Amino acid sequence: MKYDKYSYIFPPRPKNAVNPDELNFWDNHSLIGQPKLNGSNCTIYTNGTQSIVMNRHNQRLSNFNLSQPEIKSLFRGSNSKWLVLNGEYLNKSKKDETGNEFNHKFIIFDILVYNSDYLVGRTFEERIKILDELYGTNKSEKSYLYSINENTYRVKSYETGFTSLFEALTPIDVIEGLVLKRKSARLEMGTTENNNIKSQIKSRKPTKLYKY
Fold first, then answer.
1. What pLDDT, in 10s, does the model give residues 105-115?
2. Which of 55, 65, 72, 192 is most open to solvent, judged by the fewest CB atoms within 10 Å of its CB?
3. Which fold has domain 16-204?
């Protein structure tokens, strides 16, 4: 499906939650697990010249400090063709595993449009492979992230070991929990906030002030 000019896409996001004690049940090789970082879900739209950053409510993302050159450095594909990346922008001054603030970073976890091709019908596993091809799997100083540049990362994806992953990562302040996504789930049209909710679940650490 062609995506020839900017129009807003509601990003896929989990709605249903499971208790961390149930993660072993879901560890059945049909799902991909990704760490959920504590920031603002957003989408970056760029065609190499124009760049737009939106939150999950179809509003411009506030408190966003990446420069236009940094955003444009993420562009891949043919000139003037659109790229839409979905990720978490860290803007809540949370701390990493070293106790230092890990803030104003963009963490990619999905791709919705590439080369003006809206990836409707492509599975989540296929979209992860596209990200691998575009941005690589370069190690970073953090075991749960791949490095792209100074302020941009990709979250790692895991196919098993969800309980041990949850236990290892959730003591870190910036990590809220895990999102599990069905490998074979095909991207739906992002016309409402509820697209793809049936193929994703979330498991989070307890916190009184938590909003997913």
1. 999 999 999 99
2. 192
3. D-amino Acid Aminotransferase; Chain A, domain 1 (3.30.470)
